[in-house]
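hiii so my PI (J.) wants the whole complex modelled not just the main chain, which honestly fair. so below is everything: four entries, each one labled with what it is. i double checked the lines twice but i was tired so who knows lol
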Amino acid sequence: MSAGLHGAVVPVARSGEAPPARLSRPDRRPGLVLNGTRRSFTPGSTVYAHSEPAEFIYQVVSGTVRTITLNREGRRIVHGFHLTGEIFGHEREKHHHSSAEALERTCLIQCPKSLANSNADAAEELWSSLLLSRDRTAERVMYIIYGSAFEKLAYFLVDLAWRKDSSGRIDLPMSRYDIGDYLGLSSETVSRTFTAFRTRGLISTNARQVRLLSDDIQRMGARLRADEDDAAVRPPTLT
Amino acid sequence: MSAGLHGAVVPVARSGEAPPARLSRPDRRPGLVLNGTRRSFTPGSTVYAHSEPAEFIYQVVSGTVRTITLNREGRRIVHGFHLTGEIFGHEREKHHHSSAEALERTCLIQCPKSLANSNADAAEELWSSLLLSRDRTAERVMYIIYGSAFEKLAYFLVDLAWRKDSSGRIDLPMSRYDIGDYLGLSSETVSRTFTAFRTRGLISTNARQVRLLSDDIQRMGARLRADEDDAAVRPPTLT
DNA sequence: CGCAGTTTTGATAAAGCTCAAGATCTGTGG
DNA sequence: CCACAGATCTTGAGCTTTATCAAAACTGCG
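here's the output for the full assembly
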């Protein structure tokens, strides 16, 4: 290894090294694996609040949920947006360490924690949903740390389009504030970046409806979608 | 809730609301719960590389490991530092999505994935180690997004001191580059911030030995350590 | 129709990145 | 034990990105 004992000086990935990490998308979406009660939530309503006892795991049947926390100064972090099929609400301790709020009309399966582990299928899905959300966070951290506002928003839109399975046509359930608090940008910068995309013909917008137009954005999506579990085999098709 | 339908305008946490999220430290450290082969690693050596088959889970017996990935431009992200007792290496798919490297002389237990789930105790510990690392990342994201260089480094040092159980006296196994790539700072800024801390009498340093001196840093540590699982019960003692 | 909340746009300032150059440290071999 | 080389750390100067503050336009819902 020529990059120093501690490998710190790695300004550019050299060929022959491991390809850069990208989130490989799961090949299938989980069905409704959790058993439990169905509950409906109106836009803006709280699924669970910070510090409440954590008794349930949730799976989204329809709609969108955001999980958030506030830092010491009252600044908000959006930890994730949870779309149809996705599972959220696992906690390490007896109480919730975040709050979960419905962004639109939302239907959830509410599954008691005990029940979630009794079923082998569900337990397996629970484990892999946690790993997926970890990997999603890891990828987001990458963009938060090194990405420009431009890259962050492009990543966000393409990722969302993929997860919603909506080829290039997204109905955003979240505000510019939400997106900002998710990507580490101010809502103003998010708005300005939307405008910049629109100006350059990359997207068209109508309020919260977004259509991804140009390949400059779609191509990034292709790159995200291209890698399956065989990343070790294929040559890294970068740049 | 008066902060708008989508709860976006929350400039400051008002009293009566949920206290800001902080990572509650686990009340006990895991023992050596994983069974498997012990392996030793020299400083700078690779435990596993990106894209390699993921066959094992690891637990640190002694030493320190960092897990990293590179982004498309070759910039490095340090996802975590793994200290004595800590478990790492769980993957969602068949291959590793990060690389793991020993930072110093390090001894690990290498546990085959199959074996890890056979033992109920180990499976439980595996689950909670994954949740803990998720919570750790969530806290770090908070600092990456909203923290100044000052706050990031203070958080880093105090957290490390706590995890090493070394009251105010740390031997850093990682470089300034590593710290920067973990906190989203350039190594220069990390260095400058160390200097600023030293100048203000908050710490003293001798190469990679750090001693936390002033309460301005220790107090933040106390705050981190103060909250157990009863966060819902006690009044928030903030500021 | 009006209001609260959201989005957009503009102007300004500051934090931290980048580039650059020394200084210091660590391990190695003579 | 010393000298050397590679790596790491420190410090400086300038610049860019984006946060912040401010205000106007828009939107949706009651």
